[in-house]
User: Fold this.
Amino acid sequence: MSSPYKFHKLEKEGYYSFVSKNGITYKCFFTQKVESSSDLLGLKLNSPVIFFNFNRENKESAVIYDRRIGFTIADILSQFFKKNPDAIISYICENGDYKAIKRQNHFEKWFSTHNESPKKTLIKAEIHDVIYAGAIMLVEHPEKKKVEKYFAKEIKKFNESDKSGEINIFE
Assistant:
């Protein structure tokens, strides 16, 4: 895949950066907690768990839908997995502005449209219309079933009390 927006990795700062056609600078962070480097939302794994964060610098700029952003994010994720095939990416959509569901939907759309080699699995969870989170790993990842079962078990706990959780798996 060739990214429509040229991105570059800023090693010292620890993120990838690119600028959209609207002049908005985007940053993609891959970070790992040292004290719990194999913990995915409370699940202990053998694989490294990397937290992914994506944000824009120019928050005062109006956001206009741009499909090339999804292509670029997908390319960055594919390059990450080519170098880190045993990793599991964890993400949480920020909801301070009550737009987490919109972010989750964009992420799912980008994923389903641009899931090229290496093939990845997206396991996403929605809880109480407040928390939108997920995990991404390669389709053949040895701990994929363990993660799927854990997410399903956790969602079941929420649903026993108020029926407000949902899990979806995309490949």
Observations:
- The chain has a mean pLDDT of 84.
- Residues 22 and 130 are 30 Å apart (CA to CA).
- The first strand starts at residue 8 and ends at 10.
- Residues 8-170 form one domain.
